[in-house]
Amino acid sequence: MTGWTWEYDGYEPADERLRESLCTLGNGYFATRGALPECAADEVHYPGTYAAGCYDRLTTDVAGRRVENEDLVNLPNWLPLRFRPADGQWLTPDTARVAEHGQALHLDSGLLERRTRYTLGADRVLSVRQQRLVHMAEPHLAALRTEFTAEGFTGDLDVEAALDGGVTNAGVPRYRDLDGRHLTRMHTGTVEPGTVWLRCRTRTSDIRIGMAARLTADAPVTTWREASRAGQRVRLRLPPGRTVTVDKTVALHTSRDPAISDPLDAAIDRVGAAPAFDELLDSHLTAWDQLWRRAELDVPGEAGRILRLHLFHVLQTLSPHTADLDVGVPARGLHGEAYRGHVFWDELFVLPYLDLHFPEVSRALLRYRHRRLDQARATARAVGRRGALYPWQSGSDGREESQEVHLNPRSGRWLPDHSRLQRHVGSAVAYNVWQYCEASGDTEFLHTRGAEMLLQIARFWADSATWDEGLGRHRIRGVMGPDEYHDAYPDAPHPGLDDNAYTNVTAAWVLARALDVLRTLPEPRRRELAERTGLDDGELEQWEDVSRTLHVPFHDGVISQFEGYGDLAELDWEGHRRQYGDIRRLDRILEAEGDTVNRYKASKQADVLMLGYLFSPAELQDLFGRLGHRLDDELWLRTVDHYLHRTSHGSTLSGLVHGWVLARARRAEAWTYCQEALRGDIADLQGGTTGEGVHLGAMAGTLDLVQRGLTGLETRDGALWLDPVPLPELSSYGFSLRYQGHWGVRLRLEPGRLEVTVPPSDRSPIDIRLPDRAVRVEPGETCRLVLPG
Amino acid sequence: MTGWTWEYDGYEPADERLRESLCTLGNGYFATRGALPECAADEVHYPGTYAAGCYDRLTTDVAGRRVENEDLVNLPNWLPLRFRPADGQWLTPDTARVAEHGQALHLDSGLLERRTRYTLGADRVLSVRQQRLVHMAEPHLAALRTEFTAEGFTGDLDVEAALDGGVTNAGVPRYRDLDGRHLTRMHTGTVEPGTVWLRCRTRTSDIRIGMAARLTADAPVTTWREASRAGQRVRLRLPPGRTVTVDKTVALHTSRDPAISDPLDAAIDRVGAAPAFDELLDSHLTAWDQLWRRAELDVPGEAGRILRLHLFHVLQTLSPHTADLDVGVPARGLHGEAYRGHVFWDELFVLPYLDLHFPEVSRALLRYRHRRLDQARATARAVGRRGALYPWQSGSDGREESQEVHLNPRSGRWLPDHSRLQRHVGSAVAYNVWQYCEASGDTEFLHTRGAEMLLQIARFWADSATWDEGLGRHRIRGVMGPDEYHDAYPDAPHPGLDDNAYTNVTAAWVLARALDVLRTLPEPRRRELAERTGLDDGELEQWEDVSRTLHVPFHDGVISQFEGYGDLAELDWEGHRRQYGDIRRLDRILEAEGDTVNRYKASKQADVLMLGYLFSPAELQDLFGRLGHRLDDELWLRTVDHYLHRTSHGSTLSGLVHGWVLARARRAEAWTYCQEALRGDIADLQGGTTGEGVHLGAMAGTLDLVQRGLTGLETRDGALWLDPVPLPELSSYGFSLRYQGHWGVRLRLEPGRLEVTVPPSDRSPIDIRLPDRAVRVEPGETCRLVLPG
User: Fold this and answer.
1) What is the pTM of this model?
2) CB-based burial of residue A81 (10 Å sphere; 0-12 exposed, 13-18 middle, 19+ buried)?
3) How many CB atoms lie within 10 A of CB A120?
4) Selecting from 1.10.530.10, 2.70.98.40, 3.40.50.300, 1.20.1050.90, what CATH number does the domain B5-293 have?
5) Percentage helix, strand, coil, to 5, in chain B?
6) ipTM attached to this prediction
7) Interface subset of B 243-302, CB within 8 angstroms of A
């Protein structure tokens, strides 16, 4: 691994799934992973081209159950390209000796490069180099250049390219019992000279897909077609030592694209108008170069290299091309089929980063949620509440898509799945609305769609709160927090927990922000909102009341994860670690033992501590103060310690949140957790899950860790607040950001020093607030600040 | 006609087409016109439900020509509802005596009401009242309430409702030779209790349409279905004197909708979840009420009534619901099939109005153009130019859709149609980008998509300009101006004119604004743009040069419409008026005489004078000054006079532009032209064209006439400029506007007085500039200004 290249050498099929996953290429519109065609048969099990937001629903009977699944659809494979010595066998590692093989993902250029040397006989070597790109300036295009060099011989080589519609969703082994045949009504055809096409539809959502491929070579190209595949053939004359090139250019359109008439026509036109590979590469490089500048991140060492990989992967799923699409933030990006491409709450870890580099992308992702506000209101009504309840999992139309049962592979038992009781997604959406508006200064959005979402989410929380006379507090009962180990009280007849601290505190925050917005709205707009929603002063008073009286449980001098958490048993962590080694899925272990994790003070991931991730210490103290509690440093540190020792880190987000929180608490262990967060996908720490798709939230979260976490950066009240807590291992670094119409503002952190540079423009100066002072930086100025020792 | 109601009484089938057109109901997402089902057979020729942006292309062989037409598709008809005394004949004016009939379009509530009294026999009257709405808060819903009252009898009434897929595009008689069968693969079905559905696809663009209808009555509802129709039947018991009600609720979805999975499922779900009529009406009224407030317009007298009608029609095509759709501004709105729903340059007359009330709608319409920027660049390349050439007519995908031949019905000859040489659409797009950004303060848009469009349009103009050594000027040759009479020089072998003044002056303006934007862009963004477009200092110098040296021709002390215009013959206007009466289509008259209008100083509509519509006198003087010409009041007045007497006003836009320009020139004739603009559609001044769809540009233009024209309102350099030129006939009026985040800013004009009220908010104060002074109005303040006598 070098600075800008992610490289694997040798040929190790065992790691292939992980490698393929990290070697996905995308541009926000679509992403492609998968083996290059000259690789061995067992590799090509994992192709995959996913287009943002293209979902389809299938029903399967599995073990007597009718299981409905909405999947992000695996589109036809555009990659196939194989070759053989004239009239010989197609070359693969199974049929020919591979003398050398290497694969490199060039992050700076968005290029995947593979080099393979096949030994064809004594002194006869065929060297093959392939460069693959999914175009970052022209989102509907992808291209594959293949260079052949005959070493030590002259000969003819047959090359065959294809578009292959015979794909299914089969990327996650444990889903393979489910029907994955999403593509139907396949047609193929040719457009001379040398272009073939394939069109099909998804089975139930009826999204039409059009793909066209052009093959360019220095020899006559013929086309061929079958029912679900079409392609080209060319016979190349290989002179010794001279490189011969074949370029494949592919266009993809779906019927969800705006500004087209027919997706197949559009694909054929586009591939016909596409320039040659070199020119395509040139504009692709420029686009990637610009992305890297917008998200400049100058972090030294291995951390910097990993962060670049993370950024690369975030930008494949969420790039400026996403800004015109109706798509959300799928948990695994466009990188694999795990979680079926569903949207959870991962945007909470992604948007705060994007806000400060690609605000138009954040805005589009918030509009995605706004378009589903009506559905969220219907979901709230279905559980007997007013306002909006955003679902735990969703796909195409904003409906709840969470499974209702899941299998414990350890016990073989199907268990009820209550994860839809995680009702805190709305708080994540509200948090992102607020952060986006503060970072971008987009008052228009705040006053229109933003206010509509905040208001309905606040209303849901207020309506979910019930007054407990005994406690003298409002309570939110029967929910789940972010920690997925706990879904019920031990032996309780019904699922759900009361007064999850994360839920209640974020609910109070949402209510307070909704009240803030309503106070500052221009009067005519406030009237509109009130009329449309029936909001009146009585309800606002109720919000104010609930926002100050929601119950936050405590035990043993720490914040309780939920009411009654203090009564749970202590787990024998050491004993279980000894017995099972990896106890990340403690829930499954205990269930298989006939026990339940619900009995124990044991968390899968950060829950209470998420509060320290979302809010700065000052803001969290204010929030607790509003709720009538004094949250001092000691209480918080005790709370951090309590949960740190009782968490199994069974989620990729856990290391991130703990690293962030510990860094702010200036604790020595911080770096260990940060490293775990950094290594989550590159080392596949969650045991084989990276191969099924990267963990986008955790990846983006690490970027935000250096951007907001370690700098204490907040965009609040029209100012940029900073309160650095550099780690000894990460104390000198810089990055740029976009802030309220300023482009390329640069921050540089050095031990004891902070530097802010604002590029020249006609914008207003930027107000910077540190804990001990306030400064104003004019456009064109650099401000150097000495930090308190 | 009363203040808020557009009413027709009696029963006059001859006027039905006009009436139906003005009685269209829509909400931005879709619009429906057409007879109510109890009317006579000849009325139901003109149903029509058009969904924004749903185009389809068909090919027909007409008279040996292969004619391709892309149409805005007429969707299935959701209106049918008929009734009859039990087992009698269906009641229509053909089968029963109509004692009374009246139809009223309630503008304030977006309701179409019809009342009919059928005489069924001696002393037996069936009174029927229908209320129709296309829902303004829930854009996918429409509803029809029918109230039956038996007067003087008791009896059973059979009612039958339907969704009817058997529609074609047949609303414009002269297109009926073309294939209008856009709907295919029709399916129908029922969902008990009482709901039916219909789904189909457009023939080539393959847009899927799902429609579902629910019927609610106080009696058992049965359903029925046929191949392309489905509906309900109910037998009502009518007690004497008591009103019995049947409510029909309809949901429409197409596959172009975001946030749905399948359009039919979505329609069925939506109609199932829709509340009862009264509740639907309530939220519909609230939504309309809010629209009227956002576009408050307090103009007295008949002008005020007509302006309200115009506003009503604008809001049916372009409402906040449009802000999330990929749709443009079709010349005839969603009101009829003329021009096939194509998009021309009418947005130039629409967006400046919307900017100050619904900036989110303007932004969406500009994004529609931005999505087609690549296509506009391809169109430019196709004519050998760099930059972006927006087409004269377009539909789904931004391609040029202008016809290449047209028929002169007078001569029966097919003539070449060169209207695609109107290359000035790009200037309209650029003007709207600029106006939108100035009005909204949306710097983000200006710096991103706005700059991209401005730059490419400017580049097209610069690359279209050729240096004429003899003139010492740059020239743009071979184009058409807005005036469609002139498409070539007399006897020239090629079409096109040189140096159309409107084209050259707006091109200079675009170049100057593009240079302005590039100067003020944040440096990192400017670098991005330069890299992506290859823009360098040399090109910018060329733009600067072209923007100062474009040729503006003059003759006889006036601006020439184009170079050589002064050499054309004078037309015998009186003679032709005597001979033909209506000479609005002078081009057809002369061609039929074997002559050509190209020979004469005769314009169909404003061309040079459009400059006075787009630019304030001060700005126009600056612009001419930049081009090296002194444009004093006298020169301008001479120019106005010259063209005023040589224009046939064969476009609805002509009266508007002349009224505007004459008002600013403080000329007595202004009111006459303003009135013509106001009466264009209500009196169908263009001879039967209103029945084929309203003239949206002219309608919006009249709103802008009172908003910007007579007040001299400009949003420029961060201030609101005012320079009122009240007409004696229109000197006291008020309106509200949204400006840079302020909502509900109110302007009131009285003779000698101007009042500006800024509602309370936390926004910055508004800077107001009058010719003789500058004032600053704080939020919460009213500023009263005495105008110079």
Assistant:
1) 0.96
2) buried
3) 20
4) 2.70.98.40
5) 35, 30, 35
6) 0.95
7) 255, 258-262, 266, 273, 283, 286-287, 289-290, 293-294
